[in-house]
Amino acid sequence: MGRSVAELRKAVGGSFLCVCGAVYFAQGFRSLASLSMQLHLKEMGLSPAVAQSVLTTSALPWSIKPIYGLVSDFVPIGGRRRQPYILIAGVVGLLAWVGLSAITARDAQAPPPPGDAEDDAAAAAAAA
C-alpha cells in the first residue's frame, strides 16, 4: 500500500491527496450528523414518512451542487469566483443546522412517542 500512495503522490501531488482525504473525511462526518438527525426526529415522535421528508429536504443542497458550481464559475462576486460562494454557503448551512437543532417536539406539534412509561402509568391509573 505504501508504494501505491507514493506513486499516487508523485503523479498528482501531495496537496491534491490532502484535499481528497479532507473531502472523504467530511462526507463520513456528514453521516454522523445524519444519524443524530434521525434519532432527534424519532424522539420528536415524527412518523417515519415525515422524518424522511425532513432528511430529504436537508439533502437538497447537495443535490443541486452541480448548478451551484456552474453559477460560482460563471458569476464572480467581487472578482472572485469561489471564495464568496463558499462563505455564503457556510453561513447559510450553519443557520439551517442551528434552526433544525432549535426545533422541539412541542414546536412541531408532534405527539409524544408511544410506549412512554409515564403515559402508560397515567393511562393505567385512569382506567382503574
Q: What multimeric state do the chains show?
A: single chain
Structural class: mainly alpha
In percent, how helical is the residue content? over 70%
Radius of gyration: 22 Å
Low-confidence stretches are: none
Summarize the structure.
The protein is an all-alpha fold and 128 residues long.
What report would you give on this structure?
By secondary structure, the chain is mainly α. The chain has six helices and no strands. Helix 1 crosses helix 2. The radius of gyration is 22 Å and the shape is elongated. The N and C termini lie far apart (69 Å). The model has no long low-confidence stretch (mean pLDDT 79).
Can you give keywords for this protein?
128 residues; mainly alpha; 77% helix; 6 helices
Set down the secondary structure blueprint.
Layout: H1 2-12, H2 14-43, H3 48-63, H4 65-74, H5 83-102, H6 117-127
Helix pairs in contact: 1-2
